[in-house]
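Hi U.,

Before I forget, here's the chain from the pilot set. I'm dumping it here mostly so it's searchable later in email.
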Amino acid sequence: MPLFNVYPLYDVTPVSGNGVYVYDEKGVEFLDLYGGHAVISIGHAHPKYVNAVIEQVAKLGFYSNAIQNPLQIELADKIEKLSGCKDYELFLCNSGAEANENALKLASFKTGKSRIVAFRNGFHGRTSAAVAATDNPSIIAPINAQQQVTILELNDISGVKAELEKGDVCAVIVEFIQGVGGLDQGTSDFFEQVYALCKANDTMFIADEVQSGYGRSGKFFAFQYYNVTPDIISIAKGMGNGFPIGGILIHPDIEAKFGMLGTTFGGNHLACAAGLSVLNVIEEQKLIDNVNEMSEYFIKLAKTIPQIKNIKGRGLMLGLEFDFEVGDLRKKLIYEHHIFTGGASNKKLLRILPPLTIRKEHINMFFEALIETLAEVEAKME
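Structure:
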């Protein structure tokens, strides 16, 4: 049976990984500066992660949410401790799209409204309301387009004010650092005014931290750079270091009711064990400190390369913008230098999303390869 052909694939077949490296079936070593879309947070095959998953699956991998699962409580407490998000409540699911879907559903339940405000170049997932709130018409099917969504420009505070004052908006959903869209950010004034407008107009303020969460931005959550308190925070990619897990943190002002949200696989024993091991490693290895140190070093080197026209993002959620499309550059980095990087809807942007364990020697390897590759690209353009 053939696979449903929805992904353009590079001709690379990873079969194993270790730290910031993956290895193909021929034993070729690749430096991973993309982490499978920011999923690999503590490095491939981290021994504490591997042991936690092995030990848990040997005991109990899954049972339904109809029974007590102390691992869920332990995970919730650990997230609260490391994030500083006191008194929020946790609902666990399986992915970022699911997290945002549940966040939007909860906002609609809470407010009794149905329209969503989202932003240009935003990406929130590929399901129902989440994809309708994503600024990419090519992935929105007619069944999704029935959702009521208004897309505004980042920093358009007058537009947000006008839409919220119509009284039918259940939620404003924001990426504080846009991922797929190309690492754009709103201003502090914009985010804080949007938050105030939500409070004034009975609208839920949703922080989409699916990609920027878990320390990637240099703080546990990217919204923590601003004076805002989200009603709902969605999380996923870095939570399980590759094991499928997602969730939403819910402000205590939102009251739970039986049947309001539900999931079969979300928060299963194996997912919680994986998630706990990630948080333990982040804490024990002081990985958020490492994010800030490595980010500063990376940006310092990037500023020395004249072909880089703009450096975007924060922490280890970074973008290098050029004045040409980077598709061929990415291919050269993969096939000639064995380095994975990412792309974005901005075709001139190279996305850097490495494991949070990355060190200076890995960054040096990247820039040496980048400088060599840029010289080759320029020689061909002459």
